[in-house]
Amino acid sequence: MKIWVDADACPVVIKEILFRAAERTGTQLTLVANQPITVPASPHIDFIQVASGFDVADDEIVKHLSAGDLLITADIPLAAEAIEKGGTALSPRGMLYTTENIKARLNMRDFMETLRGSGIHTGGPAPLNQSDRKAFANQLDRILARQ
Questions:
Q1: What CA–CA distance (Å, rounded) separates 17 from 11?
Q2: How far is CA 24 from CA 64, 96, 143, 147, in A?
Q3: Measuring CA to CA, which residue among 74, 45, 48 is closest to residue 61?
Q4: If you placed Cys at 95, which of 4, 55, 76, 91 could pair as Cys (CB 3.0 to 4.6 Å)?
Q5: Range 29-32 contact pairs with CB under 8 angstroms and sequence separation of 24 or more
C-alpha cells in the first residue's frame, strides 16, 4: 500500500501526522501539489510538483493510484475516483469515504455547489480542530494496522 496526498489543501498538521506515520510504518507516502511543499528527507516520503491548473494534481494522483492504496483528500470527486480504482479514501477530518457513502457525499457536494451558484452563502468548513486531528490519526492508524 502507498499513501497519496492531495497536498495543495491538506492542513500542515495532517501532513505532519502522515510524515510520522510513514516513518513509523515504513509506508511509502507521496504528496502531490502544484506548489512547492517542504517534506522531510526520508526514503519513505516523496513529493511530486505538477503544473498549475484545474485538477492537474488530481489527475496525477489518479494516474498512479493502485488498488489497495490510500488517498488523503477533502476532494469528494477525487475520493470517488480512488474508490472506483479499488483504493481507500480518507478526509483530513478523519471521514472514511466508502462505496456506501460516497454517492451521498457527491450529491450533497453538488447540492451545496448549486446553492452557492445561485448566490446563497453557505459558509465554508469549520477550522480543523483537535477532535478532527484525533479522528484522522485514529482512522489512519486503523488503516495502517490492517496492512
A1: 10
A2: 23, 22, 14, 13
A3: 48
A4: 91
A5: 29/2, 29/3, 29/5, 30/2, 30/3, 30/4, 30/5, 30/64, 31/5, 31/7, 32/4, 32/5, 32/6, 32/7, 32/57, 32/60, 32/61
Helices (H), the chain: 12-25, 56-64, 76-84, 102-117, 130-145
Closest CA to 147 of 5, 31, 1: 1
**Each residue's pLDDT expressed in tens, for the chain with a length of 147 residues:** 999 999 998 999 999 999 999 999 999 999 999 999 999 999 999 999 999 998 899 999 999 999 999 999 999 999 999 999 999 999 999 999 998 877 767 666 666 677 667 787 766 677 899 999 999 999 999 999 997
Pairing of strands 88-90, 2-6: unpaired
Distance from C-alpha of 2 to C-alpha of 141, rounded to nearest angstrom: 14
